[in-house]
Amino acid sequence: xxxxxxxxxxxxxxxxxxxxxxxxxxxxxxxxxxxxxxxxxxxxxxxxxxxxxxxxxxxxxxxxxxxxxxxxxxxxxxxxxxxxxxxxxxxxxxxxxxxxxxxxxxxxxxxxxxxxxxxxxxxxxxxxxxxxxxxxxxxxxxxxxxxxxxxxxxxxxxxxxxxxxxxxxxxxxxxxxxxxxxxxxxxxxxxxxxxxxxxxxxxxxxxxxxxxxxxxxxxxxxxxxxxxxxxxxxxxxxxxxxxxxxxxxxxxxxxxxxxxxxxxxxxxxxxxxxxxxxxxxxxxxxxxxxxxxxxxxxxxxxxxxxxxxxxxxxxxxxxxxxxxxxxxxxxxxxxxxxxxxxxxxxxxxxxxxxxxxxxxxxxxxxxxxxxxxxxxxxxxxxxxxxxxxxxxxxx
Length: 395
Hints:
CATH superfamily of the largest domain: L,D-transpeptidase catalytic domain-like
CATH topology of the largest domain: L,D-transpeptidase catalytic domain-like
Oligomer: single chain
Shape: elongated
């Protein structure tokens, strides 16, 4: 069934109405008006009957024949899109491949053939109720973008997801080279439910990734999905990894395993809340010149300034950026409020080299902890086995 983006405006309890536009039962004896012998095999046949099993949103459509076998079944919505399905080996039951969706009218046309060879077609309609609550989602990275080798595929949901296994089964990731990966459920920094797909290892450069989220008609437990989603992105041609050593106060940009440039930096001030995070943080976005206010990250009124070449690493406010006010400390001491600062010239060059999705591997003796999975993209700080364990459907 094609992807539909049609909005459902009415909100009603999730009940289903079944309206018949033709008889669901059809007798299949001889031609109308023809005389019949009471003892004939033809007259002893069980009348053919078609039943549509009370389909509601979130359930597959089942069509069952008694007194004969199904030779054709067609289920079509109001837009003319067919709901594909298949007939079982015994020919008496047809089940749709997908679920019925909310707020949608369907027409059912089923043809039954009796043992005597008589075919009868019956027609009916049913309508599923509108969703009482609608769940939506936000996808990252953006469609048709090019990203670094550390970028996970990330989905944040507007409403809670308690039926995690059911939702995860509808998420299909396809890669151009058979990349091994797994979904993992976590809490986003915003507090909302989130699921990320992370490869076992960093992406291979040039990998093309596609997500098909066939969620229309799926109940998340906190609301219904009323559309499908599809997105895709490409991994850049080079494998870039940023190595940050806060003990040495150095940053090294590596490309395809070779050091391109070493930059002197100053990280977070030791011994308190101004320390930097350690572990692997993935570059979330290049935000350019932005206002940084210490009160937004719980550091009082320590600073409020415009900052150039800002590159976000966590939701909690750690960036790599130009910090000319700390020039005396580059390569010598960690004296920032948690970010990784560098000179204007180095920041300008570095900003032009990196892209969203590049991993920053940060080490240092005095940090405030490891980047959490939901604080940006911290999935790489878990082992592959730990990450697989966060899937709702197992390995």
